[in-house]
Amino acid sequence: MNRDGDEEQQPAQLALAVQLPDDETFASFYPGDNAQLITALKNAAVGQGDEVIYLWGQPGSGRSHLLHAACAEVNAAGEAATCLPLQSYQRMTPSLLEGMELLPLVCLDNLDAIAGVEEWERAVFNFFNRRRERAGGSLVISAPAPSRNLGLSLPDLASRLDWGVAYQLKTLDDEGKLSALQLRAELRGFKLPTDVGRLLLSRLSRDMSTLLAALDLLDNASFQARRKLSLPFTREILGL
Asked: Were 97 and a residue from 45, 127, 184, 204 both cysteine, which residue would form a disulfide, CB within 3.0 to 4.6 Å?
């Protein structure tokens, strides 16, 4: 196959490099006070969004979930998108970014992970420039802090992050987390009683990753035991 043919196939190959979780979609994300951000990401997924979207929020707030959801929307429409987990940069090579500018949507998750890693900062900077020259499509970047607080060593890369629109992903309060857990349970085909949800919030770490892991455990345990969720059953399974 000629070189042009190879280049045409590269974006599709890159898009398949990172598998998206099946359950991390917009439908399974409880929005809370993040409606404007979610609208911006949905617009990006259909090619009508901002050129660059920078979203930041504390760990466990759902940043990766939203990036995966945006990519899933693009993929469901028959287009190619990818989400690159930069927290795993040591298992990847910066050359992976070459050709990604051709994709309609690229998400770079946890940009803070490569702060101070010269070859990766330079590769992302060069990717920004190629993306800018091409025009069209959206780039979504996530991190746990505002762009100027990431400790990037390449000033030009830090300035590129100011090209787009920035959103803070607002964390859910306890009532929002309870609603998010009940939504996830509903999507999985079971009901999370309010008293059980409140027990989880009072006895477990309140970060959503811990709460969702507990929900998954309870779902599997109740299915195997053929029992509905109750306070005694929940305490038994989770050792509370």
From this structure: 127
For residues 10 and 101, is the Cβ–Cβ distance under 8 A?
no
Residue 165: helix, strand or coil by DSSP?
A: strand
* Pairing label, strands 81-85, 105-109: parallel
Which helix (H) or strand (E) segment is 196 a member of? helix 194-203
The tens digit of pLDDT for each residue in 9-66 reads 444 444 444 566 667 899 999 999 999 999 999 999 988 878 899 999 988 888 999 9
pTM: 0.83
Kindly provide the b/e burial profile for residues 147-162, where b requires at least 16 CB atoms within 10 angstroms of the residue's own CB: beebebebeebbebbe
- Based on the number of CB atoms within 10 Å of its own CB, is 6 exposed (0-12), middle (13-18) or buried (19 or more)? exposed
Residue 232: other Cβ atoms inside 10 A: 8
Query: What single DSSP character describes residue 154?
Result: -
Token pair listed for 173: 């309060």
Q: Is 105 helix (H, G, I), strand (E, B) or coil?
A: strand
